[in-house]
């Protein structure tokens, strides 16, 4: 569990402290996720709601791994690789999805730590493996829908605008563009809010433990 706590600290720094990811933090994050997945396979680690959330957090780095490997392949083979499967826009959307999933899961871990610290008995029925799996599944589903919407919007923008405006898809083009713009704004402000909430939660937990 000490190693998993260190992993969580690494992820908090990567997603909720640093303003943007860099090569060093991404590499360390991938190594940490791989190590966390290996640890979670051990029989010594009990199946709890926290470990379920951490497992889902570690698996989210699969999106980063796919993006990194794809960029390496594109850089190595250049024009010899078809850009229809892995475009730069798609790779960026995968990184965005990873960031959003990680931030939400880290916030769930922080909220659970808050419940354990201040409401251990009252919140026991909420802190179950089933609820953790359900929460993780909902987060993954919502962020994947977000990623698909972003990718659709970017694809339509890359297409011929004049052709789209004369086609029956004009309503879908305007809808996806507006929805994507609103979602990007919402995710930006939600990211700021999650940072504030996480700082507040751990501030309360730290001083609560200090007084004890």
Automatic annotation (TrEMBL):
Mode of membrane association: Multi-pass membrane protein
Name of protein: C-X-C chemokine receptor type 3
Superkingdom of origin: Eukaryota
GO biological process: one example: positive regulation of Rho protein signal transduction
UniProt keyword Transmembrane helix present: yes
Species of provenance: Buceros rhinoceros silvestris
Location of the G-protein coupled receptors family 1 profile domain: 32-212
Pfam families: 7tm_1
InterPro entries: GPCR_Rhodpsn (IPR000276), GPCR_Rhodpsn_7TM (IPR017452)
GO CC terms, sorted: plasma membrane
């Amino acid at each position: 569990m000490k190693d998993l706590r260190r992993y969580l600290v690494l992820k908090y720094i990567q997603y909720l402290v640093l303003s943007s990811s860099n090569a060093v933090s991404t590499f360390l994050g991938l190594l940490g996720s791989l190590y966390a997945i290996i640890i979670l396979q051990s029989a010594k680690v009990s199946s709890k709601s926290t470990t379920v959330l951490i497992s889902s957090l570690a698996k989210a780095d699969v999106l980063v791994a796919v993006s990194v490997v794809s960029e390496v392949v594109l850089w190595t083979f250049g024009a010899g690789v078809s850009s229809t499967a892995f475009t730069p826009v798609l790779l960026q959307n995968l990184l965005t999805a990873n960031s959003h999933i990680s931030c939400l899961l880290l916030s769930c871990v922080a909220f659970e730590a808050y419940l354990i610290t201040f409401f251990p008995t009252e919140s026991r029925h909420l802190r179950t493996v089933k609820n953790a799996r359900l929460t993780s599944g909902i987060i993954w589903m919502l962020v994947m829908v977000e990623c698909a919407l972003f990718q659709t919007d970017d694809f339509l923008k890359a297409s011929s605008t004049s052709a789209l405006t004369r086609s029956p898809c004009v309503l879908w083009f305007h809808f996806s563009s507006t929805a994507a713009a609103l979602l990007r704004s919402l995710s930006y402000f939600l990211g700021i809010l999650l940072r504030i909430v996480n700082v507040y939660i751990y501030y309360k937990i730290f001083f609560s433990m200090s007084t004890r």
